[in-house]
Every structure is written in C-alpha cells, then in structure tokens.
C-alpha cells in the first residue's frame, strides 16, 4: 500500500489485559497523525480489551479505522471444548508452561464467561471492518482448520479457527465474509486485492474522509 507501518510488539499468547495495555501505550507514544489498526486472530481480542482501557479515549483519538482479520473478538467455544477434555487440558498446560505462557489466557478466550463475552465498544469515529472466513468443510485448507471445525461444528457454522459465524451478528462495524476461506484466509484464489479493499474501507472513516492514510499500526 506504500503506507508507513509500525508493529506493536505484544506478548505472544499474552494475557489480554497485558497486551491491551501495550497497545494503548504504543498509541499514546506514536507520532503518527492518523492510524488504522490491523489485528490478526487472537490479536483482535487484545484490541477489543484495549478499547475498554481507561486511557482509551486519549489513545484512540488518532485512530480512524480497525481492520480485524479472522479476529477472535467474541471469544471461542474451543476454550470450553478444551476444558471438557482433561488430558488435552493438561497437555496444553505443559506446552504453554514450557513456552513461558499461561493457561489462564485460554480461559480468557471463553465465549460465554470470559471478558470477551461483553459486547465490544468501538468509538463512533473509528470504522471497524471484520474479515472472516466462511467455509464449508470441503473448503478447509490449513491442517489446523479441520480439527477446529470438527470440534465445534455441533454448535453451528464455523471458520475452522474457533469463530462461530453466528457471533458475527454481535460485532459493531462492517462484516466482510470470505466465501470458501477458512480462519487462516488462504483460499485457492488470490485474496490480496480483497484484503487491500478491506484496509482502504477501514481507512475511510467519515471523520477523516479528507485525510490521507499515514500509518498502519499492527497488533
């Protein structure tokens, strides 16, 4: 796109409140005059928590848009599925412990009793655009997508990465459904122009219509 980019260095699978604070700190310190936040998967959950930070009003004044790619913004039933399988739970406990990460983050992603169960509040000057894969099982391409799809398929259509498509109705802003793409957004066709258009849409906030995009901050 030819826009300057700043990468927000959040913690890999870090607690939502920790990463939210990192995002807010970055937004308060950056010199960018206009920002479009771009978040991926669990990173969108971090942004959702950042929107609730007490400092959010001051930090978000220069943010005109938010592009969420396969964002787990409403939590995932996979967290509950994992809790219902004791041996797998202990296996994930050990895996995360070996990486210096916390299993408590899994519980934070629960779609019914975690912090993401609360509706997202997006300030009116920020245009939120959510890109979400809408596959049938035959469209799944990533090896992880099949397992995610089958584990929560009894609850309804899913993107294969933990997002129930019925939850899209809860999201504020614009929904860009991607037919025949799973959570990892790697369909058989070239998705780059689609993502480019979604980014441009996120940048065209009504309050910033006459301004040129300056910075994309990525979480």
Task: Provide an overview of this structure.
This protein has 219 residues and is of the alpha/beta class. It has one domain: Rossmann fold. It has eight helices and six strands. It has helices at residues 16-29, 42-50, 56-59, 77-83, 86-98, 104-108, 143-152, 192-203, and strands at residues 5-7, 35-40, 63-69, 127-134, 174-179, 215-218. The protein has a six-stranded parallel sheet with strand order 1-6-2-3-4-5. α1 crosses α2. The longest helix has 14 residues, at 16-29. The two termini are 18 Å apart. Residues 208-219 have low confidence and may be disordered.
Concise synopsis of the structure shown:
The chain is an alpha/beta fold and 219 residues long. It has helices at residues 16-29, 42-50, 56-59, 77-83, 86-98, 104-108, 143-152, 192-203; strands at residues 5-7, 35-40, 63-69, 127-134, 174-179, 215-218.
Blueprint (SSEs and pairs):
Blueprint: E1 5-7, H1 16-29, E2 35-40, H2 42-50, H3 56-59, E3 63-69, H4 77-83, H5 86-98, H6 104-108, E4 127-134, H7 143-152, E5 174-179, H8 192-203, E6 215-218
Parallel strand pairs: 1-6, 2-3, 2-6, 3-4, 4-5
Helix pairs in contact: 1-2
Keywords:
34% helix, 8 helices, Rossmann fold, globular, alpha/beta, 6-stranded parallel sheet, disordered C terminus, 219 residues
Mean model confidence by pLDDT: 89
Number of strands: 6
Helix-strand category: alpha/beta
The number of helical elements comes to 8
Number of domains: 1
CATH topology: Rossmann fold
* Terminal Cα span: 18 Å
**Name of the CATH homologous superfamily:** Alpha/Beta hydrolase fold, catalytic domain
